Structure formats: C-alpha cells, structure tokens
C-alpha cells in the first residue's frame, strides 16, 4: 500500500496548476494524477443504484418512516371515519380508505424527514457513507522521503479543498482503489511529519 496525499479542486485549471507544481517539486509523472469525482450518490457502487442502501445520516429514517406511517394512517382513518359519518353514505368506505391512505403517506414522509440528518463523518463507513463533494481530485503518491511535505505545500498553495491522506493502491499515476464512500482522513496537525517510503 502506498501513502497518498490528495486534494479536491473545483476547476480543471486549478487542478492542472497543482499537477504542474508537482512536476516542479520533483515528482515523476507516474507519481501524481487526477480524476473527476462525481456528485455524492452517483458512483453506481450499490446493486440497486447509487452508492449505498442509505448514507450515515439516514440510517434511522426507515424506522421513523414506518412509525410515522402507522400513526398517520391511524389518524387518517379516524378523520376519514368522521368525514364518512358526516357525508354521503355510499362514499363512506372510499372516504375512510382515502383518509387512512393520505394519513399514512403524510405520516411516513414526516417520519422519514424526522429520521434524516446530516451525516457524521466520524461514524461513516462504506455501507453508510458521508461522501465527498464533487470536484477534480488531484492525488500524489509520496513514496520517496521528503516528498510528503512538498505534496502538501503544492496543494495548499493552489488552494485545494479537503486535503487528505490515505493508504491505497497506486499504479502509474492512478489511485486504483479509490472509493468515494470511504471517509476521508483529513491532514492533522502533524502534517509536517514524513512517513518515509510507502
């Protein structure tokens, strides 16, 4: 596994500048590269579409939607029953069913929204991700001693967003096993330290 430093850019021009800076900093062409990172949920990593069955922030929304649907259905049934008693007797069954259906729909929607929140990156995992925003990822393998800090400086000087460090499979200028669902590991206060060879 290689130690990889990566950052996200919002424009191709900035990403190109960072790669040019790597060349000037002494990196070989096979040690850096870039790729487009699509919007969250659009990487086709899940068999039914998207990237995961649910993300970290919505893992409880199914249960709260079911509870809300049950409560809403019961309330709708009661309201439908009252409306049926006050209305046309021939329409009573349809009124009761419609009330229960509308109540269940509204209740499940409210329950799902109540169970959803912004995902916590510290609790994320590939099955329940908090994905990175879209952009152009520029990554560099810091294989040789002293190159880690050069990579970090080049990315910071070009105003890269979300600079991170990862262990991964690096081949010929490509981060082969990059997975957008894996939580990123931001650079900490020890960004000056060099881990040595990969």
Q: Could you explain how this protein is built, in words?
A:
The structure is a single chain. The strands form two sheets. The chain has a four-stranded antiparallel sheet, with helices on one face. Helix content is 37%, strand content 17%. α2 (61-86) runs antiparallel to α3. With 198 residues, it is of the alpha+beta class. The protein is rod-shaped, with a radius of gyration of 26 Å. It has four helices and six strands. The chain folds into two domains: 1-40 and 128-198, Alpha-Beta Plaits, CATH 3.30.70; 61-114, no CATH class. The N and C termini lie close together (7 Å). β5 and β6 (174-175) form a beta hairpin.
Strand and helix order: EHEHHEHEEE
Based on the structure given, which CATH architecture of the largest domain is correct?
Answer: 2-Layer Sandwich
In helices, the fraction of residues equals: 25-40%
Instruction: Provide the CATH topology of the largest domain.
Output: Alpha-Beta Plaits
Tell me, what's the shape?
A: rod-shaped
Beta-strand fraction estimate: 15-25%
Number of strands: 6
CATH class membership of the largest domain: Alpha Beta
> Mean pLDDT, as a whole number?
81
Alpha-beta classification: alpha+beta
Number of domains: 2
Strand order of the largest sheet: 2-3-1-4
Low-confidence stretches: 189-198
Total DSSP helices:
4
Instruction: Kindly provide the radius of gyration, computed on alpha-carbon positions and rounded to a whole number of angstroms.
Output: 26 Å
- Give a short account of the largest sheet: 4 strands, antiparallel
Distance between the termini: 7 Å
């Amino acid at each position: 596994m290689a130690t990889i430093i990566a950052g996200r850019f919002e424009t191709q021009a900035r990403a190109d500048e960072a790669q040019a800076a790597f060349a000037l900093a002494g990196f070989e062409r096979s040690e850096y590269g870039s790729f487009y990172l699509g919007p969250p949920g659009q990487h086709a990593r899940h068999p039914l579409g998207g990237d995961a069955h649910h993300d970290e922030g919505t893992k409880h929304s199914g249960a709260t939607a079911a509870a809300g649907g049950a409560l809403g259905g019961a309330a709708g049934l009661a309201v439908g029953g009252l409306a049926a008693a006050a209305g046309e007797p021939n329409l009573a069954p349809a009124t009761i069913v419609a009330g229960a259906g509308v109540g269940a729909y509204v209740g499940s929607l409210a329950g799902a929204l109540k169970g959803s929140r912004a995902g916590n990156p510290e609790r994320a995992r590939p099955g329940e991700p908090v994905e990175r925003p879209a952009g152009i990822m520029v990554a560099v393998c810091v294989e040789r001693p002293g190159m880690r800090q050069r990579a970090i400086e080049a990315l910071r000087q070009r105003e890269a967003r979300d600079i991170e460090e990862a262990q991964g499979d690096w081949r010929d200028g490509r981060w082969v096993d990059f997975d957008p669902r894996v939580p990123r590991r931001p650079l900490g206060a020890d960004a000056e330290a060099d881990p040595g060879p990969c």
